[in-house]
């Protein structure tokens, strides 16, 4: 009797196992786990001048969210401000079969060979945040109105000070930074009581801006205005000013609208920043990628306005996060 029950139990278990494996087989047939499952997914590449800047991290987040919502793949690279490394990373992405390249050039003039490579590979390039010299090799450029960002800072300065001694923190390899400083210089030149004493290169990096500002303070004790190409450079300048005990005596301007600098403005340590919208830049870039692939894109240049942020239009409620 026991043997009979054992056989019945064993048979039932075998039947259940058979049914289970049959179900799993059916699921496996319905779900293709092979590489063919990913054949329809498009690959996009993104190469920034650096990801050591929250601005570019936010741009990348927005592009990635859009691309992945389409079921596609974004491969991002960080050359850490190296022209040679950026060229290598672009070649690697092109060899990897990306269909669109999002590009934020380390050097707006030296990026030419990479654009030529992309052209030869029939890969459209979408330039983001900073222009390149040869825009004929680019499918679309998406930037802020960087010249006007500098103008906004200078106009604010002219209406909030009777004069002063200015130093500039620059990044001459980035066209966006060049345009911001040029807009500032062209505007403030109309006011003879303001004097530009000197400038220093800092690549828009806090850790380079701080010693650059320290050196400027050592050479020019009467500095009372700083125009920085971006917010990280402004933060570096403020760190140097704080160490020198001069933070409350110097007006500091930047460009970006980062949450950290909004807080510094609210605290009275920074005068103003011309805010960009990295989220909007990223969203537009991703949208344009799909328009280019579908042959519907008609815009080769998109220039977004900036918005000057001061203590008059920032509140504690909108310090967190970026514009847009």
What does this structure look like?
By secondary structure, this protein is of the alpha/beta class. The chain folds into 2 domains: 40-143 and 278-303, Response regulator (Rossmann fold); 146-276 and 310-318, Rossmann fold (3-Layer(aba) Sandwich), CATH 3.40.50.2300. Helices cover 46% and strands 18% of the residues. The protein has a 6-stranded parallel sheet with strand order 2-1-3-4-5-11, sandwiched between helices. The longest helix is centred in the N-terminal third of the chain and has 29 residues, at 2-30. The radius of gyration is 27 Å and the shape is elongated. The N and C termini lie far apart (78 Å). The model is unreliable at 1-6, 19-25 and 28-37 (pLDDT under 50).
